[in-house]
Design brief:
heterodimer, A: alpha+beta, five-stranded mixed β-sheet, B: alpha/beta, Rossmann fold, Ubiquitin-like (UB roll), de novo design (two linked rop proteins), 12 strands, 42% helix
């Protein structure tokens, strides 16, 4: 069957790829990878009906298809638009897209408290990455930001609605993983909020996954809250024989101490396999787990700055997008002593330490 | 006197009730239509050139022909009676005083589209009208126009009235469908369009009340005859709900051949500006369409007389034109403040945004707050450019047209009335005591002699 499925040719930012019919533009771009991939704050490939809401993945379709080459009149949400044969899409090569995306980032950050210094998500926050890559340095918003009361939804999950960007991922997760629908959006417009029916707690044994799907720090793990910063902990893949779930998890350790257990995430920050509350909240001893080794870490995560063994290098495509090799305007090493090329950070085990840079004149070690 | 098709018998005593309605030629179109084939009816509607009366003006016949017809899957017709646009109240009049006209149109359209269960989604605030419609439906059923085997043709049809809970967003067709299904009224992401997957994932056509009512005269007189009324692609008659500073606010049926000037100033229609004041500006198609100053309203940028038709009002694009929209004709006289007016609209869209997609959720509130500052004398000069930039980033980037509807009025107000915004900012104290007035808004349009 799969061999008979028609293949569509789609060109995204001058890079052509063949994808099966029915693939969305975003997924086609993910197949290419790198900078060509639009950011997605609400789309989650594991969740049905997700996407289309945050509008950060807007792209320009400059040619509809081979049959109907008219461009689409508006920017389209790439996560919900399927490719057509011969479609041409502009993402980072379109000024319109970059301008619109800058606006979206400003809208998303407008009512966000920006309390990253005290937020547990800091360091693995999609909104931080998005604003760093696509936002402007300041905001033009001069009014009071929206505030909500913190809410406990169940004994393990804290809902901090003020930080929420209303991506609806947790709503779909609660809806699709668990049998009962008791978690959703109340009110509307800029005062809409995620909540449970009459503030009821969520007690389903898979409900902990809403923490993992949350792109910001709106849903946090109460067993980990304020215990540590994520970049001080080391992600390690581990498994156990769990009667409810696959038991394949990621432990966030410091020394021999397990600070946090989460599901394993793929390179797009999406959960690979859902895990149960028991694994997530109760198994916080090393002896509970069989350790497999250090995890593959997303490049965009600050944890990647620690350069663990399996750190993935970014996938650079700029030469294909612009059709030629970029010219090196300046070699940073010719004017700066920082980051000496002879010190290979990826060879250092664990986070780099000042002793690793001995001999570096800047540090005054002579 | 213009042609009257929808409101022909509006003033007949007791037209709300079946007996009077039938005596005045009611339900003739059902008798005629049920002898035709559904495709012939769709063809008639196509020939008539009827355009959707809800605001977008999409050709109805074409919309009907897009309806998917998979074997064994029921299809539905949904009547959009969630008329919530500020300034628009034409459907209310139709449903309240001539409910049988809508019921008749619904039966014919249901037959054409093969809908055995047809819904009227009516806004919650029209509570008493829902009862009027239910009564009309019951009367129609008692007289054999609804139910099983209508007129012995084997066609079954039921009409259900569904009350909304009072959300503007539920007038958007996919939000309406969600709400009809009992869910939160969030617009769906298109595609798939309702014609493929609508109510309960079944092919669905959603039409405005006036559109469906207009099917009755189309069937009675034939599509070609109907197309002869009006001008160009603006065929047939259009209901306008005129309000604001005019002598005779109310519902008017026009045949789209008159000029805007005639509509405002003739005694047959609005009867001129109230209290002998001067015309400053007008929103001709419900609150979402761009506002126009008097000079551009009466004449196009080319110096021609602006006509009351889809094309006439749209002449000049958004730069110097506007839209027919849903027909909510709001007139502002010289004493009205455009800044305040724009702020009121921004507050409305902020309140009614569903909160699903970020540009609209955050942007509408931001625009309202800035406009509030300007209106109350706390604005800055940079706010005007900021407003322009915000509306530009909302427009076209949202899931549904509510984002556009929120952006257009602000954009048009700044485009045509920027001096009034600046005056508000430069005179924070004076602007609290008096209005800017007319300035040059009624001056003749400068037409360059050399292109």
């Amino acid at each position: 069957m799969s061999e008979q499925a028609p293949k569509f040719k789609v060109t995204i930012d001058n890079i052509t790829i063949e994808v099966p019919a029915g693939t969305t533009i975003l997924n086609a771009a993910r197949m290419i990878g790198g900078d060509v991939t639009p950011p997605a704050m609400c789309y989650y490939s594991k969740l049905k009906e997700s996407g289309g809401k945050c509008r950060t993945c807007l792209v320009e379709v400059s040619k509809g298809s081979e049959k109907d080459p008219r461009p689409m009149p508006k920017l389209v949400a790439s996560c919900r638009t399927t490719v057509m044969d011969g479609m041409e899409v502009k993402n980072i090569t379109s000024d319109k897209v970059l301008d619109a995306r800058k606006g979206i980032v400003e809208f998303l950050l407008m009512n966000h408290p920006l309390d990253c210094p005290v937020c547990d998500q800091a360091g693995e926050c999609d909104l931080q990455d998005l604003s760093y890559e696509h936002g402007s340095e300041g905001t033009r918003y001069e009014f009071d930001r929206r505030k909500f009361e913190k809410e406990d939804i169940g004994p393990y999950i804290q809902l901090h609605m003020t930080r929420c960007i209303l991506c609806y991922r947790c709503v779909f997760t609660a809806d699709q993983l668990t049998g009962k629908r008791e978690h959703g959006v109340l009110e509307r417009g800029d005062h809409s909020e995620i909540s449970t029916l009459l503030g009821k707690s969520l007690d389903n044994e898979f409900i902990g996954n809403v923490i993992d799907v949350c792109p910001v720090g709106a849903l946090t793990d109460k067993t980990f809250r304020f215990k540590n910063r994520v970049w001080f902990t080391k992600p390690v893949d581990a498994h156990r024989d769990c009667p409810t779930c696959s038991g394949k998890v990621r432990l966030w350790m410091r020394g021999d101490e397990v600070f946090r257990v989460t599901a394993r995430k793929d390179q797009w920050g999406e959960v690979e396999e859902w895990i149960c509350n028991d694994c997530r909240f109760h198994k916080k001893e090393v002896k509970d787990w069989v350790i497999e080794g250090p995890s593959h870490v997303r490049r965009s995560s600050v944890i990647a700055q620690g350069h663990y063994e399996h750190t993935q290098k970014p996938h650079v495509l700029i030469d294909k997008v612009i059709g030629k090799q970029p010219v090196l305007k300046m070699d940073i090493h010719s004017i700066s002593d920082v980051n000496k090329p002879e010190i290979d950070l990826s060879k250092i085990e664990g986070p780099a330490h000042s002793t690793d840079f001995e001999g570096n004149k800047l540090l005054g070690n002579g | 006197m213009g042609v009257k098709l929808l409101l022909e018998h509006a003033h007949v005593e007791g037209i709300r009730y079946y007996d009077t309605y039938r005596k005045n030629g009611g339900y003739r179109s059902v008798e005629k239509a049920l002898k035709m084939t559904p495709d012939e009816i769709v063809e008639e509607v196509k020939k008539s050139g009827l355009r959707g009366r809800g605001g977008a003006g999409f050709p109805t016949g074409m919309k009907w022909s897009f309806l998917a017809k998979p074997e064994g899957v029921p299809r539905h017709l949904v009547c959009n009676a969630d008329e919530s646009e500020p300034g628009t109240f034409k459907d209310r009049y139709l449903m309240e005083f001539i409910p049988h006209l809508l019921v008749e149109g619904l039966i014919v359209s249901s037959f054409a589209l093969g809908s055995n269960a047809t819904y009227i989604y009516i806004r919650g605030e029209y509570a008493w009208i829902a009862e009027i419609l239910e009564q009309a439906i019951a009367e129609a059923r008692n007289n054999g126009w609804l139910g099983k085997n209508i007129l012995g043709t084997g066609f079954d049809c039921e009409i259900y009235v569904h009350r909304g809970a009072g959300a503007y967003i539920c007038g958007e067709e996919t939000a309406l469908i969600e709400s009809l299904e009992g869910k939160r009224g969030n617009p769906r992401i298109k595609p798939p369009f309702p014609a493929i997957q609508g109510v309960w994932m079944r092919p669905t056509v959603v039409n405005n009340v006036e559109t469906l009512a207009a099917v009755v005269p189309i069937i009675n007189m034939g599509g070609e005859e109907y197309a002869k009324i009006g001008v160009g692609k603006s065929t047939g008659t259009k209901l306008l709900s005129a309000c604001g500073n005019i002598n005779k606010p109310g519902i008017y049926e026009i045949d789209m051949t008159i000029s805007v000037e005639e509509f405002i100033f003739s005694d047959e229609y609005c009867g001129g500006i109230a209290k002998g004041k001067r015309l400053k500006a007008c929103i001709p198609g419900g609150s979402s369409v761009p506002i126009l100053p008097a000079n551009l309203l009466l004449k196009t940028a080319k110096g021609e007389t602006r006509m009351m038709s889809y094309e006439g009002l749209a002449e000049g694009g958004f730069a110097t034109g506007t839209m027919m929209g849903s027909g909510g004709f709001e007139v502002l006289d010289e004493d009205q403040c455009v800044v305040r007016h724009t702020m009121t609209l921004a507050r409305f869209y902020n309140h009614e945004s569903c909160g699903q997609c970020s540009p609209c959720r955050e942007g509408t509130g931001w625009m309202y707050k800035i406009l509030k500052n300007i209106e109350y004398g706390k604005g800055k000069m940079s706010d005007i450019d900021l407003l322009w930039d915000i509306q530009r980033k909302i427009e076209g980037n949202t899931i549904c047209p509510l984002g556009d509807a929120a952006a257009w009025p602000v954009a048009a107000a700044i485009r045509h009335f920027r001096d009034e915004f600046e005056w508000h900012i430069l005179n924070p104290e004076e602007s609290q005591k008096r209005n800017y007035g007319m300035a040059h808004y009624a001056d003749p349009i400068h037409v360059p002699t050399v292109a």
